[in-house]
Amino acid sequence: MQTVDTIKPVELANASPAQEEHWTEVIEPRTNLFDLRLGEVWRYRDLVMLFVRRDFVSNYKQTILGPIWLFIQPLLTTITFYIIFSKVANLDTAGIPAFIFYLAGNTVWGYFSQSLTAVSTVFTTNSAMFSKVYFPRLTMPLSIVISNLVRFGIQFGLFLLVWVYYLVTESTIHPGWQIALTPLLVVLMGLLSLGLGMIFSALTTKYRDLAMLLTFGVQLALYATPVIYPLSKVPAKYLWLMLANPMSAIVETFRVGFLGPGMFSWLYLAYSAVSTLAILFIGVIVFNRVEKSFTDTV
């Protein structure tokens, strides 16, 4: 006959708190500004994927066309650019067919701008969830960038179909070896939008006007990025100003890789990469600092 071991009251009284309770999660205040707790974010990677699915489904759940909008949006924007800037304004596209030229720029810029705008409002749009449940707050902006990456993948597939058509029918399309840098360019766009978005999300907890200012600023930034014109057509005295924008080298490298003519420089791309990492580092620090007290201001 088996006997069941029991703990005597004396033993319970002498037991330490660590012996009485075993916690699976311990929440402690951050005392170090540079304590980013990236390991904690990795442990919650399943939650990130859950947020990604939620964002993608919620955007198209009650729409008639559903994910077809992912094809319609870049096509309508490209057609508009084609009519206004190519036919009416007669802007030079460096010998590249105007439609594929604008589609390439819109595909890249769309991912960056949508991710930046969505991340910038992460505190205000999710304040109810943040105030009730604990999880690493950094998982939320990460999930937004990844969900937009899924949208970018679909729109990039549309770009590839149009690109193959022009590659077969036009002799002016000359892909370069820079096409192999596409994964790097996508990573840089995602990290840049994540860093800038977290900086603005921290600021908008106190200054709501910045959200509207950012939306307007992103629209203006389109014209400060070589999306509707090639970088080679920018006057020399303004070229430095254009290259100060980290997205300029990314867009130009993407276009050179797939379409051919353009200005590619390792120096320009290295500047974009260093700027992106610096902005991301600042964004994570500011985001982590604000998340401790944002519920008092939102």
Strand pairing plus helix content: what structural class?
A: mainly alpha
The overall strand count is 0
Q: Please give the largest β-sheet.
A: none
- Work out the oligomeric state of the chains in this entry: single chain
Give the overall form: globular
Total of DSSP H or I helical runs spanning 4+ residues = 14
How many structurally independent domains?
1
Q: Tell me the helix content.
A: 55-70%
Average pLDDT figure: 80
Query: Beta-strand percentage?
Result: under 5%
Distance between the termini: 63 Å
Helix-strand sequence:
HHHHHHHHHHHHHH
Rg, alpha carbons:
24 Å
Low-confidence stretches: 1-13
Could you describe the 3D structure shown?
By secondary structure, this protein is an all-alpha fold. 66% of the residues lie in helices and 0% in strands. It has one domain (33-296). The protein is globular. The termini are far apart.
